[in-house]
């Protein structure tokens, strides 16, 4: 796909330099592995652990572009669903040992949307500006949380027997509020990293 601005992946490994399908497959595998590794760097919290996973998701979106970024996170989700221990705390599959569906499934869906959005914005040059990339990362975080919180609220209602109001409060207090400051820091670091990378590439 031709873009107004090349992504970092396209700049470092031009699509025309090799078989495009093989290139995309290798990048997707490497990206899903990065997300899996970052998912294990966590602070245990219930029911949603705090990890570096979201940072990896947004970085992959920005570096790969919209379509390949989203496809990479689809691959990651399929790996976990197939039983590979790629989710936080080396969790695998969509169900807990008790048979309950996992509480964080909505965030995994959100990963795909977030990577696609950040990648789409990067393809339009947002990754060249600290302010724009910071905004792109925050927008990615927002769309990531939407399915995550909806899923978590439904999980609390169906499996924990909470009322809608109680489940909503718990979902926001445990699945959003503890992560806000961390997400702001991650967005700032990612924005600086992208602009620094482009600056170095420009000098070369």
| Number of helical regions | 8
Fill in the CATH topology: Arp2/3 complex 21 kDa subunit ARPC3
How widely separated are the two ends?
Answer: 25 Å
In CATH, what is the class? Mainly Alpha
- Give the helix proportion (percent range): 55-70%
Oligomer: single chain
Which percent band covers the strand fraction?
under 5%
Main pleated sheet: 2 strands, antiparallel
What's the total number of strands? 2
The succession of helices and strands, N to C, reads: HHEEHHHHHH
Overall shape: globular
Q: Which whole number gives the mean pLDDT?
A: 89
Radius of gyration: 17 Å
Which parts are unreliable, with pLDDT below 50 for 5 consecutive residues or more?
Answer: none
User: Which structural category fits the helices and strands?
Assistant: mainly alpha
Structurally, the number of domains stands at 1
CATH second-level architecture = Orthogonal Bundle
Strand order of the largest sheet: 1-2
């Amino acid at each position: 796909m031709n873009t107004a601005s090349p992504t970092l992946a396209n700049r470092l490994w031009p699509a025309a330099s090799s078989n495009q399908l093989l290139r995309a497959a290798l990048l997707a595998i490497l990206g899903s592995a990065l997300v899996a590794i970052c998912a294990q760097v966590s602070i245990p919290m219930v029911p949603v652990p705090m990890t570096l996973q979201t940072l990896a998701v947004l970085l992959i979106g920005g570096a790969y572009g919209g379509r390949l970024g989203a496809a990479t996170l689809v691959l990651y989700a399929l790996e976990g669903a197939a039983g590979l221990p790629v989710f936080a705390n080396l969790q695998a599959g969509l169900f807990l040992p008790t048979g309950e569906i996992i509480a964080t499934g909505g965030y995994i869906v959100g990963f795909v949307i977030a990577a696609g959005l950040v990648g789409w914005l990067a393809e339009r040059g947002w990754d060249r500006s600290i302010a724009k990339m910071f905004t792109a990362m925050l927008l990615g975080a927002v769309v990531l949380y939407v399915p995550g919180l909806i899923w978590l609220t439904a999980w609390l209602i169906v499996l924990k027997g909470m009322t809608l109001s109680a489940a909503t409060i718990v979902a926001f207090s445990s699945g959003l509020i503890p992560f806000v400051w961390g997400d702001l820091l991650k967005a700032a670091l990612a924005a600086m990293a992208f602009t620094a990378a482009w600056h170095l590439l420009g000098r070369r």
